[in-house]
Write a structure and sequence with these properties.
This protein is an all-alpha fold. The chain has one domain. Helix content is about 75%, strand content about 0%.
């Protein structure tokens, strides 16, 4: 395995497994511009968009559940 292969694997793991933000990946790889990182690894980010939407839906569900708990608290 070459150094370039290791570098690409490192970046891919940071993004796909750890959910690292592009600016952090760019910094670790020494990219001067974040656009370099996004152009190279953009194929790994579509799943993060779906994951983010799922997380937001989860927060919404939690908030709705808490509102229901608040309404029940005043009842006896």
């Amino acid at each position: 395995m070459t150094q370039a292969d290791l570098r690409h694997s490192h970046a891919s793991l940071l993004i796909s497994r750890l959910g690292a933000q592009p600016n952090l990946v760019a910094e670790r790889l020494g990219h001067e511009k974040i656009q370099t990182t996004l152009n190279t690894y953009c194929h790994l980010y579509p799943n993060q968009s779906r994951d983010l939407a799922d997380q937001l839906n989860g927060l919404n569900s939690e908030a709705e559940g808490q509102e229901g708990d608040d309404n029940d608290a005043g009842e006896t």
